[in-house]
Amino acid sequence: MLRQVFLSALAIASVAHAATSVCNQTSITANAQSDLDNLSGCTTFGGDIILSPTLATATINGIQTISGNLICTNNTQITSITAPSLQTIGGTFQLHELTILNTLSFPRLTSVGSIDWVTLPAVSGLGFTTGVSSCEDVYISDTDLNTLSGLSLTTVSKLDINNNLNLNVINMGLTEASYQIDISFNGNTAVSFPSLVWAYNLTLQDVSSISTPSLSVVNASYLLISNVFSSFSAPNLTTVGGLSIDENQSLTNMSFPKLTTVGGSGLQVANNTKLTSISGFPSLTTVNGALDLEGNFTSASFPSLNLVRGAVNVDSNQNFDCSSFNSLNSKGGIRGNDYKCAAASSTTSIALSATSTPSSRSTGASGSATTTGSSSAAATSKSAAAPNLVVSTSGITFSAVLAAVFFGIF
Ligand SMILES: *[C@@H]1O[C@H](CO)[C@@H](O)[C@H](O)[C@H]1NC(C)=O
Ligand SMILES: *[C@@H]1O[C@H](CO)[C@@H](O)[C@H](O)[C@H]1NC(C)=O
Ligand SMILES: *[C@@H]1O[C@H](CO)[C@@H](O)[C@H](O)[C@H]1NC(C)=O
Ligand SMILES: *[C@@H]1O[C@H](CO)[C@@H](O)[C@H](O)[C@H]1NC(C)=O
Ligand SMILES: *[C@@H]1O[C@H](CO)[C@@H](O)[C@H](O)[C@H]1NC(C)=O
Ligand SMILES: *[C@@H]1O[C@H](CO)[C@@H](O)[C@H](O)[C@H]1NC(C)=O
Ligand SMILES: *[C@@H]1O[C@H](CO)[C@@H](O)[C@H](O)[C@H]1NC(C)=O
Ligand SMILES: *[C@@H]1O[C@H](CO)[C@@H](O)[C@H](O)[C@H]1NC(C)=O
Ligand SMILES: *[C@@H]1O[C@H](CO)[C@@H](O)[C@H](O)[C@H]1NC(C)=O
Ligand SMILES: CC(=O)N[C@H]1CO[C@H](CO)[C@@H](O)[C@@H]1O
Predict the structure, then answer these.
(1) Nearest CA to ligand 4 atom 11
(2) Nearest CA to 147 among 127, 180, 169, 130?
(3) Domain limits, the chain
(4) Nearest CA to 30 among 62, 55, 66, 64?
(5) Could you report the per-residue pLDDT of 177-234, keeping only the tens digit for each?
(6) 152 by DSSP, 3-state: which?
(7) What does pTM read for this prediction?
(8) Candidates 8, 17, 24, 38: which one to mutate for ligand 2, based on the most atoms within 8 Å of Cβ?
């Protein structure tokens, strides 16, 4: 009986070997190293290889291609996974919850369908000696990696790297990301994408510096939140679907010299503690969504801006002069239903507008739009609470502006 099993196993192995060295099983679960050794005659393994929680080390000899997935999850005793000949994983390379794994060795691996690594607290290097140059999706979370060296991708669909607290540097020659790049909470990472031209979505949080000299388009949304840099520059960025720069507590200046258009997701610059002057947008002419400025700023400069298709909310905790936004509004440059500009104080409104309300910050709860214009004609305000609010002396002008806006849009 035992002998028969042994012989038939031998027969299977030798058939696979003698034929094309293609082993077409859909899936094997390796409970012992011997299970992996059985497959060493297969240059291509057709299915998934699952390394079971009973393994303490795993060496995958012989196999050059795994057509399916390579999976190892919930193993608290495995220390090492090695695959000296492996070049390609067609499916997902999934490593989850491997608490003491500290050695990965994939010296010839170049192509992986997707990488999905979560909670590998002892893994400090990828182990890709040749370098993985093809991978559609990368998700790496909660590891001890201090480098992504060995991940040498030029294109990717998704790159999501989060909560790797020792990852101080990311420098990758990506040229495009068709779905998203999200680098968040890795602990003061210096991020450099010297060749990145476009990304569909781009999110950077808790980053100490970012260098994207070639980045020209972020198709959907660009979020810069809770970062630790004091200055930021996107020298080649011309177009973004939406841009949010929020809660970067050290940010004092930024530069978007070529940015001409922000799309329908709008522009938000909010609660950047030290950003007293919002500037760095010399070329911005159009925001196709809303414009929202909040925080400790005393000036906001958008010298080329002539059209905001969404609402405008400007809310300063400091002394701020609303006149340039009032002027944009009165010229029909704000097409959203809501326009609000409020400041903790405004010397201009006190000086020039005898009839303006006391210069206190308007709150959403009051439902009233704050208008701090330099003259009554400029103080036309559209608000959700009072959408038809018209300053009496400028009723005709205001209607004319509305008509112009209407014909302008359609
Ligand atoms: C393995 O499958 C492929 C296609 O799925 C087939 O062409 C090949 O002949 C099969 N090889 C073996 C040894 O069964
Ligand atoms: C590997 O071969 C041994 C016999 O040599 C057999 O008992 C075992 O089931 C095989 N493992 C797999 C995963 O096929
Ligand atoms: C691994 O463990 C987690 C939680 O302990 C559980 O949610 C998950 O289903 C497990 N995965 C596998 C493949 O057993
Ligand atoms: C892009 O970002 C926006 C805003 O954060 C989000 O709603 C959308 O789902 C993201 N799309 C992709 C493809 O990541
Ligand atoms: C900036 O973008 C232009 C095209 O818009 C491109 O020709 C140029 O090479 C880019 N600059 C850098 C530094 O990549
Ligand atoms: C994003 O923009 C780039 C550059 O304009 C373009 O080539 C690409 O097709 C766009 N991607 C998507 C998914 O819309
Ligand atoms: C920020 O200001 C510093 C000091 O004035 C300057 O050297 C730097 O170039 C500025 N950075 C940007 C992005 O404008
Ligand atoms: C900015 O901070 C204020 C006060 O804490 C808060 O109400 C508001 O939601 C914040 N805005 C954004 C965009 O985070
Ligand atoms: C404004 O600055 C003060 C003092 O530095 C700070 O406590 C507060 O959080 C800042 N507010 C915002 C919205 O950034
Ligand atoms: C250096 C610095 O101030 N970093 C802060 C950026 O903003 C986030 C969230 O507001 C803080 O957690 C960081 O400390």
Answers:
(1) 201
(2) 169
(3) 24-109+125-130
(4) 55
(5) 999 999 999 988 999 999 999 999 999 999 999 999 999 999 999 999 999 999 999 9
(6) coil
(7) 0.82
(8) 38
